[in-house]
Amino acid sequence: MERLDDRFAVLVGGARDRLPRQQTLTATIDWSYELLTDEEQVLFGRLSVFSGGFTLDAAEQVCVGDGVAADRMLDLVSGLVDKSLLVSEQGRAGGRFGLLETMREYAAAKLGDAEEEELRRVHADFFQRLIVDSFDALWGPDDIAWLDRLEDEWPNVRRALSWHIDHMTQDGMLMAGSLYRFAFRRSYIPEVLVWLERFIAADPTPSPARARATMGMGTLSVQKAYLEEAIDLYREFGSKDDLANALTNAANTARLTGDWESARSFATEAGTLRDPAYPGPFNDISLLADVALQADQNPARAVELEEQFLASARESKSLDAIVSALQTLGDYRRHAGDLEGAETALREAQQLEANMSERHQTAGLTEHVLSELALDRDDLNQATVQLSASARLIRRLLDQDDIVGIYSAHVWAALAVRQNRYPIAVALLGAQTAVYDESWFVQEPTDQIEAEKTLNKARAGLDPTSFDQAWEEGSAMSGPEALAYAVHELGQNE
Predict the structure, then answer these.
(1) Exposed (0-12), middle (13-18) or buried (19+): which is 325, by Cβ within 10 Å?
(2) Residue 178 contacts by C-beta under 8 Å, 6 or more apart in sequence?
(3) Selection from 59, 116, 55 nearest residue 88 by Cα
(4) Cis link prior to 464 (omega < 30° from 0)?
(5) Topology given in CATH for the domain delimited by 1-111
(6) How far is CA 311 from CA 198, 292, 462, in A?
(7) How far is the C-alpha of 189 from the C-alpha of 464, rounded, in Å?
(8) What pTM was computed for the model?
């Protein structure tokens, strides 16, 4: 039987056995449409180009002209809401309007093929400009507002990307490349990677657009080859800022894969390209701070550098950067033995996170470090509270990357050892080792040291057979399964 994808075709098709309710609904829409003025009818049809709703500004940019005046847009949209052909709704970033899907397909049927194609082009260009404009803004004082707006517009962004990939435009490739910051910070990584892969494969021509696309692909997929291509392209086509950005992302990828000397080299070069007038945040400094801790084993230097990064983040007024800096500074101060200073930074981060999405890039990290701090103080109850809170936040990110489920396993294991529950500790560390071994992610040296200490304590509390059994049990777990196991065995009841 042929699949029917068009809701409206089903609704208004010529079948004699249509339900009376469908006939009544069709007649009602027809009646409402006929009551519209010519200007309202034209606009109603054009609004069908949007997916998932639209703002008044978007309607003014996409739908005006040839029968629809810009200065009439507010009155026209309000009139369509009053006539129940549009709905008014509240998005994350403010007021929006939308059409129910049946209404949208009815409205689209009023467009001619040529008009619909032109509307798709204008719509795709509008959202391309929005995404490209957001790229730098996502490191500025309005970053949260921009993130919220892009999340509201995600269905329209998808629709625009589809048009650009169908027409294989360089503008579309630049658009896809400009999405990686949003994808990383609001956990849309898998979907954006698919778009990037399609654009990169479709057009190998060296260009500034390809430079940003390969930078985005390398950053989100943690693949060095893409970032090396982006660096080469930016040396040819880009500005110093573009090159510095690519080098910084390459440094972060090297850090994640355990290549600390490459991380140092990339971050150091990025720092030489920094514009003194740029307010920050200066990610190269934060990366060098991590190198100082993990490769040089110099926590005091790491604290010094991360405090510099925090100052640049505050100067930029980027909430995301400030929170990330405070989380990391708390961790570095803890390693340096400054437990009070660590808690001060972490509590400020926690307060600021109240104004952020629960799916932001470092959700759960504050509580993770606070749990380590509690264990340093032998406060097992507080460690349980913080680990459980971290787990609740991390669960929301598992649909994007299930490796995050294993990130805190060594801390849960340390808690289990403190409670003399050695098999649980061994199982969790077995799970963590297995997941890391099968992934691109390399556990940081400081965490490896802590995990090894915990494993040795647990091993001492078990006979060899019990140890091997627990290790085998844990090694079979995925990241999400290990997290669920830890919460069930050691966490707070929800």
Answers:
(1) buried
(2) 131, 132, 134, 135, 212, 216
(3) 55
(4) no
(5) Arc Repressor Mutant, subunit A (1.10.10)
(6) 39, 18, 48
(7) 42
(8) 0.83
Q: Per DSSP, what are the bridge partners of residue 88?
A: 97
DSSP assignments along 2-57, one per residue = -----HHHHHHS--TT--HHHHHHHHHHHHHHHTS-HHHHHHHHHGGG-SS-B-HH
List the domain boundaries for the chain: 1-111, 406-494
Q: What is the mean pLDDT of each run of 10 residues along the chain (494 residues)?
A: 39 45 66 88 95 95 89 93 92 93 90 93 98 91 90 97 95 97 88 96 95 96 95 93 94 93 97 78 92 97 97 89 95 97 97 77 87 97 96 77 82 98 98 90 90 97 97 95 95 76
Structure tokens that stand for 246 in this block: 């690519």
Nearest to 430 by CA among 372, 380, 479: 479
| DSSP per-residue string spanning 450-485 | HHHHHHHHHHHTS-HHHHHHHHHHHHT--HHHHHHH
Query: Could you tell me the two tokens for 210?
Result: 């390809």
* 369: nearest Cα among 354, 393, 396, 387: 387
For residue 71, the 8-state DSSP code is G
